[in-house]
Each structure stands twice: as structure tokens, then as C-alpha cells.
Amino acid sequence: MSGFFAVPYTILWFTGVAMAAITISALVPAAIMSIAAANLVSRNIYREFVKPDANSRQELRVSRVTSFLVKFGALAFVLFLDRRFAPEFQLLGGVWIVQTFPAVVFGLYTRWFHPGALLAGWATGMLSGTLTNSAGDYLADVGDPHVEPIRELRR
Hints:
5 helices; flat; mainly alpha
């Protein structure tokens, strides 16, 4: 595993700086997603279902709390999750995006598909993709030189 990192182990202080930079770079997309989640919750859930007559100050408060919770959850993932699960989560995120994209695009840009069929297809794809991802070792030995360092991390 010594060849896995670009920085040699002899420069320990720089390794710490590099790991801190990686952690911060993982939190930047989480901050952007927290803003999107906060807008989604405050406008589409809170105002629509919880309190339809909410004023902008109440909506702002819900948005701030939601944003904080999403950022706190991302920080907990970065600090407490075992690094062996990172490839699985990366693949799972890709599977979920691939399953969501057709339902959103076909639902927004055409009226040809029935909404129930789009929802059923999305749910089936999400379930089968998640179960397939969690079923076993997706790192099959196909002669890829990048597989072995990932397997070392998982041990």
C-alpha cells in the first residue's frame, strides 16, 4: 500500500495536510447539497404540507435547521465512517443518479409516459440497484491494475 499515496510516509506533516484537504474537499459538495436540501424541505415540504400559511421568517428558520442537519450528517460521515465503505457509497450514488435521471427527464419533457409507471420503474431500479450493490464484491478481477489498491483498503 506504500505506492497507493503520492506523498511518501516519511513526510508525516504533509500527509496530515493532504488528508485535511481531502476532508474539506468532501465537505464542499455537502454544503452545496445542504442548500438544495434546505430549499427543498422549506418550500416543497414545510410550506406545502406542514404549514401552508408560513411566512418567510418561518421558512428561513426551517431552511437553516435543515441545512445544519445535512452538513452535520456529512461531517459525521467523513469523520466516523470506515474508509473501506467509500467505494461502495461512490458506486451507490452513481446507481441512484442513473436510476433517477430517466424518470425525471421523461416525466418533465414528455407526457407520453404514465406517472405511475415512471414511479414504479424508478422504485424498481432503485431497489434492484441498491440490492445488487450490497449483494457482494463488485470488485471482480478483470485485470484492472486499479482494483488491487482498493482491495488493500478494504482489508
